[in-house]
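Hi R.,

Here's the chain you asked about this morning:
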Amino acid sequence: FSNGVYIPEYLYICFQMTFAAITPALILGALAERIKFSAALLFFMLAYPDDPAEVLSEAARVTRGPIIVVQSLHANRFGYAWLRLREVLWTIVAFHVSKLLGYVAPEAEFAMKTRRFYTAQALQRDVKAAGLQVRSTRDRPVLPGRALVVAAWILEPASARCVNTPATAGRPDE
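And the predicted structure, written out as tokens:
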């Protein structure tokens, strides 16, 4: 170091640890383009991107196993209204309260805009547009009458089930 400049030992250790911490991240980043992951989990996030089918397609591209999607699905106006209310309270109000309490910088702007609230049919449409199909589903009702459910869908490439077995060999696709 420079003569006459004192750097506390713990500060120097922290400085060196930044390099120790970032090195594995750089290596993993370099490998991420070259390897496939065994599965992907998309947890309540398809409501936010401009093109969720593109997100699903990219997940399929980098995954050799299943894609697990967990998403809120509404079935009627009551379920839709509940999702809207939750959006206002959990994201917008929470952001501004956090800003007032100092957890978020005063100059920060709210940018997490929900672009869609899914029905099962709309999610199925995006899944199909991504070249995927639903292998299995599991739903947990949140509101009476299944107006709102939390659904977990396991997706796979649409071609995964198009295997010629003795029962289907020679038959045209329907």
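Residues 77-101 form the longest helix (25 residues).

Let me know if you need anything else.
M.
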